[in-house]
Write a structure and sequence with these properties.
heterodimer; A: about 100 residues; mainly alpha; about 75% helix; B: about 170 residues; alpha+beta; NADH Oxidase; about 15% strand
Chain lengths: ~100, ~170
């Protein structure tokens, strides 16, 4: 893997952190999930992840992430659904 | 009015490059914007080199959808101050580049291009990457390319809601 790709992601994340000091509050959650998308892209490109369930979750994020700018409720619902997906994926829902 | 209403902020672009000729047309539209005290404080850096766009992208969290080109609109704050004082430097500059930006985005829409204005970028990093002098402010990035997304029409506050006649609260 090209180490520079990861360094770029670090730079993107710290730039996002700096931006979040001044930007609208909703941009924070957006930057976090956008970072997940970027990290997933790097891992996928380098054949370091191949989990189909994770891929579906990332698709779900990609599909709805921009709704933070037009429909915050839809964005939050997406986050809630994605969390549910991760709980199930990690097999933590043992009740 | 059609072009104004059709314009959307696009956050997913096709890989197709935009010709230099079209990009320069956008700048031609920009320089005809109104300008306080006619300072015309603007400079436009067209970035269409893939490597440089990638560098800009790393430090611009708001730059989304991999556009093939971006325009950084800058303002010469020193010139604005010399001509129009603190009002020119601190307020008129922002208005001038905003009006120039709108010209860019509307002409882009008219000639089949799509855009998105981006303020979420790190000014220090972008100024370093693009080698700006210290008296020039990196004010706004506009992504430019061919849209690869279906957009919806966001709700607008009505004319009635936002308009008063003659005094605050004055209705027809």
């Amino acid at each position: 893997m090209d180490e520079k790709e990861i360094i770029k992601l670090f730079a993107y994340m710290v730039t996002s952190a700096r931006g979040c000091v001044d930007e609208p509050k909703i941009y924070g959650p957006f930057r976090l999930v956008d970072s997940i998308s970027k990290l997933y892209g790097i891992l996928e490109k380098n054949n370091l992840i191949g989990n189909e369930e994770v891929s579906k979750i990332i698709e779900k994020i990609e599909e709805k992430k921009y709704s933070c700018m037009t429909d915050e409720k839809e964005f939050v619902t997406m986050l809630d659904n994605v969390i549910d997906d991760f709980v199930a994926l990690l097999n933590f829902n043992k009740k | 009015m059609d072009v104004i209403k059709k314009r959307r902020s696009i956050r997913k672009y096709k890989k197709e490059n935009v010709s230099k000729n079209l990009l320069l047309q956008l700048i031609e539209a920009a320089i005809w914007a109104p300008s306080g005290s006619n300072v015309q404080p603007w400079y436009f850096i067209i970035v269409d080199d893939a490597n440089t766009i990638e560098q800009v992208n790393v430090f611009s969290p708001g730059l989304l959808g991999k556009p093939p080109s971006v325009i950084l609109i800058c303002s010469d704050r020193k010139k604005a101050f010399e001509t129009a004082g603190t009002l020119g430097r601190d307020e008129l500059c922002v208005m001038d580049i905003s009006m120039a930006a709108q010209n860019i985005m509307l002409l882009a829409e008219e000639i089949g291009l799509s855009t998105c204005p981006v303020k979420s970028f790190n000014k220090r990093a972008i100024s370093t990457i693009l080698n700006l002098p210290d008296y020039v402010s990196a004010d706004l990035i506009i992504s430019v390319g061919y849209s690869d997304e279906m957009t919806s029409t966001p709700k607008r506050r009505s004319v009635k809601e936002v308009t008063f006649f003659n005094t605050w609260g004055g209705r027809i």
